[in-house]
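Appendix C: a fully annotated inverse folding record. The material below is reproduced so that readers can follow the format used throughout the book. The structure is listed first as tokens, followed by the designed sequence.
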């Protein structure tokens, strides 16, 4: 049986060291006039030319984690530069089962969100 999964980036927590200050505006978002380092931006902004999420059909959560939003399926030891240029490593993917797939549908990507910029 195949399931439908939502895959999203699972960014690591930023370094909130004592010597780094992040200013928030009144709505709780980063104040664009404040100074914050590029590392913080990189953690929460996927950047141009990257995927932000996708919906896939797979037999298990682990199988889903190894489907790239571009449709290619890769094993853990087969990761290449293309994988990380446009997506995150499988261990940094948040996987949520959202349904059961029709038995006639094949494993793969249903739709993907690509941030062109």
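Designed amino acids, in order:
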């Amino acid at each position: 049986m195949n399931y439908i999964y939502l895959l999203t980036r699972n960014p690591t927590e930023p370094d909130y060291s004592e010597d780094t200050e992040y200013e928030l505006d009144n709505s709780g978002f980063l104040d664009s006039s404040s100074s914050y380092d590029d590392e913080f931006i990189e953690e929460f902004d996927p950047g141009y030319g990257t995927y932000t999420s996708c919906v896939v059909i797979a037999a298990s959560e682990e199988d889903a984690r190894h489907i790239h939003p571009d449709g290619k399926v890769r094993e853990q030891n087969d990761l290449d530069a293309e994988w990380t240029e446009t997506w995150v490593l499988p261990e940094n993917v948040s996987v949520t089962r959202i349904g059961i797939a029709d038995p006639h549908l094949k494993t793969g990507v249903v739709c993907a969100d690509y941030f062109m910029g």
